[in-house]
Model the fold of this input.
Amino acid sequence: MGSARRGHPGGAGRGRPDGAPLLRDGRPAFPGRRAYRRRRPDGRVRLPRAGADGRPVDDAARRAVPPRTGGGRLGGPRRRLLDDAGVALLRVGLAVSLTVEDLLRRVDLLAGPYSSGLTRAVAPIAEAHGVVLWNHGGAADDIHAQRLRAPVGILTPASRYFEPALRWIPDGPVLVLCRRASGFSAAVTAGAEAAARRQGRPVRIAMYSAADTLRRFVARLAAEPPALLLAAGRFEDDVALAGILSHGARPPTVLVAAGVRQFGEPLGVAANGFVGPSQWQAGADVVPDLGPSAAHFVRRFTACFGVAPDYPAAQAYAAGVVMSRCVELAGTLEQERLRAAAATLDCTTLFGRFRIDPVTGLQTGHEMLLVEWMEGRPRVVPV
Done:
């Protein structure tokens, strides 16, 4: 593992007179509008609650972030978790900016919201305040393509979601179903198209605007079935498509929604045979060198909260583990030093590998898994 104090391409190599790290080209490791300053760390953590997924994220962060930041070595008051009110903020325009700016005056570690839309809204605000945004909930690539250095990605980006599916069925034509007016769906589709073309495979893109058009899509599918069908719609769209496809013959089908545990709830036995990309599965063969194993995390989480963790909790926990390690490496909660530490960190948590592009913060080390539904459960498919 690298240290923020050591030279590293794109990481912190030297410092300003005030102690802030600089990149090798002389730029600040974390340029922000707020002047670099020293302050006593207080270990406060801002945490999102986005709809039904907020509670497991909250619970996971309570497990991951030590009660005193940095394992107690930095001192200061105990951890505090602050609620940003989630999706409702986006419905009131300026309120998201005002609320997040108020939170940023009171926190040292900023764990991002759950959803690409919310993360996209928060990222420029965090940048303006010179605060690192530990992004465990927004997979859209464009979050890290806005020339912002605030976001540090934990997740495999959306453009790489279908890479394991294309290795699973490596030959033949590919058909990708994409939801219109969805940035996430567009990113997943563009990534799948590019990866399939690199394999030398023919690719078709089918666009749709609403779930009620999916029956017509399935009716046309039989006329020219692909070797592999990929669907990157909304969760409810993918579930509806699976329900329609389950009544007849279908090509090997990979749905984004099939990668999450809730996929099986509305479908029951009809979920069997569908395949999905997954950021995390407790049974995956991952040996962490930082933090506990997945088995230990699941056991402790279930004992504490009475329910087994799903992927939002694992993502949030991994973000907490990475944050804590970066605090240890930096020896401070000063944001520029934390960002420089993240740029040099290469490790494996229970979530998988962590390594980012040192400039954009895009996650480059973590790999997607592939799961197939069998007997009412998702099982990891080796690819």
Remarks:
- The first helix runs from residue 54 to 64.
- The first strand starts at residue 14 and ends at 15.
- Residues 1-52, 67-77, 87-93 have pLDDT under 50 and may be disordered.
- The domain at 160-278 is CATH 3.40.50.2300 (Rossmann fold).
